[in-house]
């Protein structure tokens, strides 16, 4: 059988108590075999008989020392020692007994947080008060009990709720209530746990074009097409007017083209030029067929 030296999972916490009220020290310890627990006050072994009104208990790794009605004489340093065959461990805290009182006061309040599914969550508060306030965590009005999934830890005036692995169903309103004989204080915050399906994809940018812009765009395209068609037609007409390296100017009204000089050499191009030197008049004189002479 393997052995394990004692370890304090939850150590003792110092207590400020009002004179005449109860004061409790509590610690959680583990170890194999189960350790034996002893209490000390200012270095001296402490027993229920030696400290009238004190109650000492140890069960399931939970060591408790409670004094029902404290006086100024109870103030001091209290320690708990856990021992087994593998070793020992000690935890120590202070008890301060005072006649003054102060209601609970949050010097650090809960903060709202948003996390992804599977993340670890820690909700912290710092609270003071005389006597030491009793601090409890709640979710949606239901008290949270410390467990493996939801662990409540105290370190001096710092109280923490640890969620080992958060899921969307853990989302909600969390609150802390601190109370003592002088009053009560509350702090509240929101926890949002986002599931994997809630991951927001990158938004694609869209360009919104109004109806007038679409009309203008279409009109511009038509004008460009008309202009392109006109330029193509003009280019074709100008190419047809290139004769023997000379370009004739096309006018809006029909005027006789300038007669180019007669070429010095006979070529097919010369015949075309000569043919195009006819009158541009739209009226053509049709001559009757010339009788073929009889031979």
TrEMBL record:
Q: What ranges does the record give for the region Disordered, renumbered to this chain? A: 253-295
Q: Which residues form the Ig-like domain?
A: 6-98, 104-192
Supply one GO molecular-function term.
Answer: protein kinase activity
Q: What is the scientific name of the source organism?
A: Denticeps clupeoides (denticle herring)
**Bias category Low complexity: which stretches?**
264-275
Report the protein name in the record: Ig-like domain-containing protein
